[in-house]
Give the backbone structure.
Amino acid sequence: MTAVVPPPRPVAGLLRVQRLTRVEDGEELNALFWRAGAGWRMVSSAVLGGGIAERGWVLNAQVSHGYRRTDPARHLADLARTLGARGPGVGLMTAADVSRYADAHDSGVEAVVTAGLGVRGWAAAPAERVRHPAAPGTINIVAALPVALGDAALVNAVSTVTEAKVQALLDAGYDCSGTPTDAVCVAARTPRPGEETHAFAGPRSLWGSRLARAVHAAVRAAAAEA
């Protein structure tokens, strides 16, 4: 008997981000907020909500260039609460103006990217060039897939996103692999009974290739505006 795999859930408008503005210490700062809702598992390197877990929202908040707070996770959680966020979510931050974001999609996969490239370089820089702390100029990448991914595939997706980011930066004319504080969040659907959970998300897999193209297009567009 041939197994029948349910079709992917509707894909239109997965990443419907809200652009928001706030004032902190007299400075007008922007933020992007995605109310994902229930039914999402996310893998992230973000300061708030990192790791692999069920998450219901994503906040990408601009902070001042002279950011000095030592509790960024708490800061992001407080900001999310003021927006009405409930339950666990993911919080990213950057000194870049997130209102100048870029988005792209490919066959159901969507990506939203903000890029601050004032502090950039190669990941494997010589030790004497490594400086701490790094400035908060950052490439933040949020991507969403309309299918379920296993844990290994979620990790694989982060690798695919990173490879696509570097390719896009080179294609945009930048001589770097990114910034010291780049962050990523990949959201995939929570597995449901009778629905396929994909085991791979590398750049030559079905969904990984779509993810790579969407991220590449969004990073390249964001880098051109940075």
Residues 1-11 have pLDDT under 50 and may be disordered. The first helix runs from residue 72 to 82. The chain has three helices and eleven strands. The CA atoms of residues 28 and 136 lie 17 Å apart.
